[in-house]
Amino acid sequence: MEHIGLLYREIYTKKKSGELMVFDKRVKRTLLFSKGYLNAGWSTLPDEKIGQILLKLKMIDSIHLSALHKIPEKKMRFGEYLLSQGLVSKKDLNVALLHQLNRIFLMTFQMEGANISFEEKNPELPKEIFMIFLPPLIAKGIRGYFSPSAERFMLEKDYPFKKSGELTIQLEPEEEKVFKEIDGKRSILDIVLLTGKDRKFVMKTLYLLYCTDLIDFRGEEIKKEKGDEIFLQEIEKFYSTLHGKTPLKLFGLERNYTDEELRERYYSLVKKFHPDRVRSFSPDIVKKCEEIFIKLTEAYQALADPSSKSEREILLEEKPSPELAEEKFKEAKDLLELGMIWEAILLLKEAIRINSSNYLYHLYLGKAQAKIPSLKKDAENSLLKSIEIEKWNPDAFLELGKIYLSEGMKTRAKSMFKNVLLLDPQNDEARELLNKIEFS
What we know:
alpha+beta; Arc Repressor Mutant, subunit A; four-stranded antiparallel sheet; two-stranded antiparallel ribbon
């Protein structure tokens, strides 16, 4: 199980109400909470019954304790009975109940491996309840027992930071030394070295601070930042030599490479530098990855020829037939339907390289490029090329209109949609978009 301190943290921070049961073969402890406060509790362990607590506190004697059998069955609690008989004062009873509740709560920290069941609800509270603020009790419980499961939890955390400057608990002097070194930039190891404290003590203190909601951890964020920094360096390094390498050198292959080696190198590099991986980075990085992606695919296509020609012969071979261009075009359309935009763009470019006079190739290339914000200008050029080849081309005018409209160029967009309707009067999409401009 997760250490119970994490559950108490959740109950406190999320102001939960409910009934908690912690039990094993030996004992069952029950605690009631409302809005993040501890209210009441009881235990099946004889030493944690209210009678034994009163006896240990010397508020009653063994004779009074033996009167337990005189209580009307299920009609009155032992404390209520003693109160009704004048055998204990209201004040003493409340002190004993508070002592009992604290003990039951604290002992749950030592039930490593026990079953935990928390039912979130508005519990039925007894007459005598308390509203106990959890953080000081949580801290006391962790000081008393830092369990193996809590230690394992801490092994996955790093770079603590303070959530607030205000302390909700009284820290011990050695704990304060650890707390003072927390700045969000230092790792747990840094804090260990700065304080000179035992690593386990530092982790225990940080766990205590975490469970009382005084700190949180930036470990994953820091790791991501460092990972991003390394990745950016790799992109810059690969890009810097991109245009000076032959296809073989780009993949790090020898002339006697196998098809399997080529595929492995290609897919590994494409996966690593795919433009979709860097959408959250700067436009410059996105552009560089786009160039890397295109260059890798062009190099792969050049080397993937099944013939035994040399690399130079492959790169200088005669243009393939128009039938091959059509095959690549059809494959690109299938990829577009699957949402594989970059892969489709590369195939469409290859189709155009083979046969640049087909207006449909330019049309679909423009449609694909328009889906990527950084390629809007390229999309415009592709669509204009399509219109240059085939002037009676309503689809190209429609796509151009959409691009202009998305860029806020309403006059240009309006002109494009009118052209569509001149060529295709039944085009509902163009009419709807034109009306949107005219009536907005």
